[in-house]
Amino acid sequence: MKYTPSRSSLLLAPALAWLTALMVVPCALVLALAFFRRGTYGGIEYTFTLENFGLVFDPLYAGIFLNSARIAGTATLIAVIIGYAAAYAIAAAPRRLQPVLLFFAVLPFWSNYLIRTYAWIVLLNREGLVTQLLRWFGYTGEPPSMLYTEGAVIAGLVYNYLPFVILACYAPLSRLNPELAEASRDLGASAVTTFRRVILPLTVPGIAAGAVFVFVLSIGNFVTPALLGGGRFQMIGNLVYDQFLTANDWPFGAALAMALIAIMLLVLMAQALLADRAAGRAAEAGGDADG
Amino acid sequence: MTQSFARSLGMRTILILVFAFLYIPIAVLVALSFNAGGLPTAWSGFSLKWYASLAGNSAILSAALNTLIVALVSTAIATLLGTLLAIGIEMRRQYGKGLEALIFAPMIIPDIVLAIALLSFFSMLNVTMGLHTIILAHVVFNLAFVCSVVRARLKSFDWSIVEASADLGASALTTFRRVTLPVIAPAVIAGALLAFTLSVDEFIIAFFTAGAGRASTTLPMQIYAMIRFGITPEINALATIVMAVSITALTLSQRLNRGVIGQ
């Protein structure tokens, strides 16, 4: 009795049915919802319209999109810089220590997101640890207002997603052939040039994967802006939340969600493109090393 | 020599700073949960009283029970379906990109999108929402994670031993039980632990699919409500317990399945 395609279909069927019924169909439903009109009393009127997508580009909402992109972009940039440095340092540590360091770098990522965000409220509130530290250093003025600022939102996003960047950047860094860097140095390149021309290009896929992850999760986030921004910083996620739970305009909420998915797909495509180009470069570098 | 010394000093500084950044916020929270005075401003002695007060908080206890029910049931379903899915895919050797995308989708779709999609779906079908709808929803992403952990294990699986078992007359079920399962068991358990942790911690999808009323409030929903209310010493204690549970489950999972989760 050999395993046959029909047999494997039998194994796939229950999970695929589940995913179809509870992911594909609901997402298709949201896509459809986006083309309907909002009823007078908040229900859904089943007439076709493109108004909801038009509203997405209304200056008010387009502004929130740009705002979200800026916050997510800043968080991504900071997370990538810190995460890459951390991954580089882990990859440079003695071999037997590396798995341990990596494990502890990723561990916080697996604890509750709300709790990790709440920890920043504890740190940043007016009488929080940061204020206490400032006092301890002799600061006597008004406690600085750090919570409910854009900076707090960005700090929360960086903190929450940093472990993933470390993980994503570590993979290509640990696989890096040390002979390549040595060859570059032997040929007279400075440490900076070696990094910029040899190490960085070969580790772009890791950076791209980490960056995409932070950006996508940040731009759709509604918990961090709600808790650390104190509701003062609307991001797309908050807007979607409002349409479904308070404003009761589901068609517009659906259109916003689709815009979010569109941004995500664009970013993923850009990443795939970058990864392809880097793969080409890596193949070249590998060929050179052999030759 | 000096250059490599400076380099290793630099690397160490980076590691210390990054680990401080990652762990200080959590450490402060844990320390404050044992602070007798309960204030974040002054240490007034070690105490377990905030943990004791949690035990007397019926809202938190019922939320914890709900979370446990959701996590256990959704993990059980996801582990079964996800494992079968992983075996089915790896056995096939060739499969379309569409299938791959379908399985990866729950891991990358923003939570808020899946949350509103399920809310629209359930309310359009007039399904009364509650713990059961949260379970249905949690299986969607748990399934994807279990599947990816088990698949990683199956990559190095030698399918010829399955054929050998069949040639020797074992039924498909016996082959699975006696040949395939023992090989993938650590990955299955690791996947289940991962799913359990994800479900215990999941907030957004639960929030949208729990329906009206407090009866189906889960622990993260309770924590969210408490945080919005302000800082209380009780949240610190609750946060410490929840983190201890997830971190224990994750560490176990990692031990069972070295490295797979990290990939």
Automatic annotation (TrEMBL), chain A:
InterPro entries: MetI-like (IPR000515), MetI-like_sf (IPR035906). The gene is potB. One of its GO terms (cellular component) is plasma membrane. It comes from the Bacteria. Its main location: membrane. The chain crosses the membrane at residues 15-36, 48-66, 72-93, 100-121, 152-173, 206-230, 250-274. It comes from Mesorhizobium metallidurans STM 2683. PANTHER family: INNER MEMBRANE ABC TRANSPORTER PERMEASE PROTEIN YDCU-RELATED, INNER MEMBRANE ABC TRANSPORTER PERMEASE PROTEIN YDCU-RELATED-RELATED. GO terms for biological process: transmembrane transport. This is Polyamine transporter subunit membrane component of ABC superfamily. Residues 65-273 form the ABC transmembrane type-1 domain. It is found in: Cell membrane.
Automatic annotation (TrEMBL), chain B:
The lineage of its organism: Bacteria, Pseudomonadati, Pseudomonadota, Alphaproteobacteria, Hyphomicrobiales. One of its GO terms (biological process) is transmembrane transport. This is Polyamine transporter subunit membrane component of ABC superfamily. GO terms for cellular component: plasma membrane. It is a multi-pass membrane protein. Residues 64-253 form the ABC transmembrane type-1 domain. InterPro entries: Bact_Polyamine_Transport (IPR051789), MetI-like (IPR000515), MetI-like_sf (IPR035906). Its main location: membrane. Belongs to the binding-protein-dependent transport system permease family. CysTW subfamily. The chain crosses the membrane at residues 12-39, 59-89, 101-123, 129-150, 179-198. PANTHER family: PUTRESCINE TRANSPORT SYSTEM PERMEASE PROTEIN POTI (PTHR43848). It is found in: Cell membrane. Keywords: Cell membrane, Membrane, Transmembrane, Transmembrane helix, Transport. Gene3D superfamilies: MetI-like.
